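Entry:
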Amino acid sequence: DDHVNETGDVQIHLGSKRICTSPVSFTWSSLYEFMTRQLVIGRVYAPGYWISALLITFASQLGFWAGLIGGAALLANGNSIGYWLLGFATLLYATSIARGAIRQSMGRLASLRWRTARRARRFDVFAGPLTGLFLTFIFARSAFGRRIVWRNVGYHIGPTGRIQLLGRRITQSIWSREEGTSQEVVANKDSGLPTVRNKSA
């Protein structure tokens, strides 16, 4: 999300070994802001991938919680089908644990602080249903709007993908910038890197 490509003719390849967990200190609000920004950017620039991830997330959460709650309710009423639903929910949870273990094994090879983040590692591996609910909420939030915030600076992604700089956030709805002007981020034709320029409002 730090690179602006106007022409769309640049392909970026990311090796599988570049994807791993990394230690970072987040509050719930900063994590919400970070994930919302990433998913809004994904919805605008890669809608196909965003929709696929949305459907997978919603389906997995619906399957787990429906199996868990529905299975318990059926068993409470003496219906043996509840065992099948609980078994399905257990299978989804085991899959979540396996994915978390794989993520942490990759982080073990790449992060020097891996051994000191024991509580975070356990949370990542075993709290999949809770983090899945949080992700589902963020997905729902990212389905609306085009405003993102990075380091307390607001940006608006236009219909064509052009990014307009709103300014530094003062409150949740007020942004500081010079009256009558705005700024936009465009790609430098020589370097391809983002460049900020002023334009008339």
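The longest strand covers residues 163-169.
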